[in-house]
Amino acid sequence: MKNIIAAKLAEIEKSENVRILYAAESGSRAWGIASPDSDYDVRFVYVRPREFYLKLEETRDVIEWQLDKTLDINGWDLSKTLRLLHNSNPRLFEWANSPIIYKTTDEWAEIRKEMNSYFSVRAALHHYISIAERKYEKYKKGDLVKLKRFFYVIHPVLAGKWVLHKKCPPPVPFAELVEAELEPELRPILEDILKQRSEAPEQSMGKRFDKLNENIEKNIASLIAAAGDLPIDEKADWNCLNELFFSIVV
Asked: What pLDDT does residue 96 have?
């Protein structure tokens, strides 16, 4: 599959007249909890020729290349990426920390060096709380739930706890979050769910896990309370990001 993805990235570069600076896996495969038929969520950062950025008309800053049962491929323009980094976008940190990298460059390495200086505990915590609340509203309805949906609830809860406790971006591998942030008495339950998911199709259903649900609700409430006590971030500086942008666009 890596060869197929590499070919797709080369196809994007040729068809769109872009240069891909970085590409990585996102989602369940990057987390290490994929089901046998999980798709590949490929995310990338690209740059266009300099004249593109000098146009007066508005231009698109995303490429949505493919979405089917096997591949989900899309990317962000360098300008969008750096603006989102200025705002400490948690998705960007997840892409950057992915354990499955399909392509990287020296230019991306320079961006990566500066990323942690733009990380905001407050922004990240609010992001994970929002996801956890939204996903839990869908998850808690009904006695049977998609196993996949459970992980989309527990993941942001554990990621939020990591951010609060360690003041840095959470790791992408789900096992690291579990080891650091899930109460030991709940781990056997989670291990059983993980086993079910690893052996079952993507859309498989399972019974609700009431003990874990209680823990999720308690942790969401705790994270909301903690987020309210965090100070407002100081306004981030643009100079470094501007210099990166000017050095990469040619």
From this structure: 97
User: How far apart, in whole angstroms, are the C-alpha atoms of residue 199 and residue 181?
Assistant: 25
- Average per-residue pLDDT in the chain? 90
In angstroms, the CA 221 to CA 219 distance is: 5
- Would you give the distance in Å from CA 223 to the centre of its chain? 19
In the chain, where the domains are located? 2-119+234-248, 121-228
**Distance from chain centroid for Cα 146:** 20
Please tell me the distance from the alpha carbon of residue 30 to that of residue 3, in angstroms, as a whole number.
17
Cross-strand pairs, 20: 46
Question: Per residue in 75-105, pLDDT tens?
Answer: 999 999 999 999 999 999 999 999 999 999 9
Rg (CA), the chain: 19
Q: So what's the pLDDT on residue 206?
A: 65
Q: Are 181 and 164 in contact (CB under 8 A)?
A: no
Q: What integer pLDDT is reported at residue 152 of this predicted model? A: 82
- CATH number 3.30.460 is the correct assignment for the domain at 2-119+234-248: yes
Whole-number Cα distances in Å, 59 to 25, 52, 55, 79, 245: 26, 8, 8, 11, 17
94 and 103 Cβ atoms separated by less than 8 Å: no
Per-residue pLDDT tens for 223-234?
Answer: 999 998 888 888
pLDDT exceeds cutoff 70 at 201 = no
Q: Is the dihedral of CA 51, 56, 62, 64 positive or negative?
A: negative
Two structure tokens written together for 222:
């705790």
Query: HEC states along 95-131?
Result: HHCCCCEEEECHHHHHHHHHHHHHCCHHHHHHHHHHH
